[in-house]
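During the no-cost extension, the postdoctoral fellow (Dr. R.K.) reprocessed legacy sequence entries with the updated structure-token encoder. One reprocessed record is reproduced below for audit purposes.
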Amino acid sequence: MPSIIYIFFFLALSFNLGAKEESLNPNEIVKKLKELEIVGDDFDPSNEEHLNKVQAIIKDKLIKGDKKLIKELSTILPKLHSGKSEDLIKQNTLDSLKEGKLKSFLEKYPKLLTFYARLIKDERAFVGLTGIMTQRDKLSFFGIFILVSIALNYMVKKVIKTMFKQITRVCFFLVLRIGVFYYIFQNELSPSVKIFRDVFLV
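Re-encoded structure tokens follow.
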């Protein structure tokens, strides 16, 4: 599901163990990682190989829906960034990315960076988003709905012939899926939707 992939993206970008800013306090992050049994005593935050290994472990745990890790990250990360300006967060984000399509894309569309910066500074919004990953029952229900909508979409596609109606069909099912996702996770998404509206629609 795209929405969950975006959440992983936010987490991966904001969790920068190699950051030098004093406000990030990397020693505290390493301590927390040890408590979560992600790293051992031999972990060196200045070692790129160690950092890559930790990132892989964290991504794997997030994909598996590790509730303890999600809860820790969702409360720690916004506090780490709360004292920073939006411009600093955006610059740090770009600096943490290697030259490539993702960095070029973010530079081309700076509002995405603004949205990201405000999102990780807002604890309520960030906790809400990450909390979605721990709600397996709701995610399972949405997954079933997606499968049903794909089947319905396929049947309607077979009946409709004109280009205009085909475009209408695509738009209808897209809006329907987004609407159902928002309805299911309205409490979790509301703070992020407000930030999105302020950045992109005002």
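Confidence is low (pLDDT under 50) at residues 1-15, 17-24. The first helix runs from residue 2 to 14. The remaining legacy entries will be reprocessed before the final report is submitted.
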